[in-house]
Amino acid sequence: MVRTGSASVATAGPTLAVVAREAGVSVPTASKVVNGREDVAPETRRRVTEALDRLGYVRRPRFDAARPPRLVDLVVHSLESSWSGAVLHGVEEAAHDAGLDVVVSAALSRTRAARPRRGWLDKLTVRGSAGVLFNLAELTESQFAWLDQHRIPFVMIDPVLEPPPGVVSVGAANWQGGVTATEHLLSLGHRHIAVVAGRRRTMCSSARVAGYRSALASAGVVHRPEYIRYGGFDEAVARHRMRELLDLPEPPTAVFVCSDRMALGVYEALAERGLRVPHDISVVGFDDLPESRWAAPALTTVRQPLAEMAATALRLLVRMMDGERPEGTRTELSTRLVERASTAPPRTRT
What we know:
Elements: H1 16-23, H2 27-34, H3 42-55, E1 71-75, H4 82-98, E2 101-105, H5 120-127, E3 131-135, H6 141-149, E4 154-157, E5 169-172, H7 174-187, E6 193-197, H8 203-218, E7 228-230, H9 235-246, E8 254-257, H10 260-272, E9 282-287, H11 290-294, E10 300-303, H12 306-321, E11 330-333, E12 336-338
Helix pairs in contact: 1-2, 1-3, 4-12, 7-8, 9-10
């Protein structure tokens, strides 16, 4: 079976009649809720919506074969971050070259799992989009199956979790980035190097931590389990994890932080203790977002090419929309170290 970028085809979902029966309403009433009609009582709408969620119902697409769509969807976690800005820039340029229009949706839930909200797939069918780009998303098994069943090509940009076999994705060389960051600190003379990572099970976190451990092993430095701290890609969590590291009997002299945003939280934790970067402790981030240049001192970081990743994903999507099958399912773009002012040789400990 040729995939369009998702998991294997599953059986068709529930019909509208099943949803109506589950909610205790008529099929026309359930149809009104699905189509966003206003002439439905709030309590009835609630029952139908809960049944839709519970049963995993999505409206079937209504593509017009006589008018092939030239529209693609970009689904992002948030429109407020500089990360999303870089992704938007890359997609916009590549879409312009391909003669495509792009619909941008902040359609991912704000829960720990970045999954498309209820109703997003319904809107996709109404627009008749030819393909989808997902950025930092976690799709459910039923959502993968729905996209595959209806032959909607899609590409994932930096997927949070390992996608199912056959899913096309674009990301950065996270393992090598972890190696590069750690080797930089080792070259300065640091041997007590900690890492503050995102969630343990995320693809990028596990790869960056693996790179960190590999670099230590190559240098003959035994990694210390207490120096590895997982949390989330959030400033507050990173601040808390840095406090834990500082409370150790032998705190680190340097820390590799798995995102620039998290590094800002680490800066805050160090400032609370009256510690200076890099005089007392060196810090390396990951991403090379604008925030890394604005930090004081400017943050040494590993650059991942976000705009290029997004543009590559769009070009792959165009090929899939034209019926081509990519040679491989995973494309990784190289990372590189950007040295600034947040790293220095360690102070001699008394």
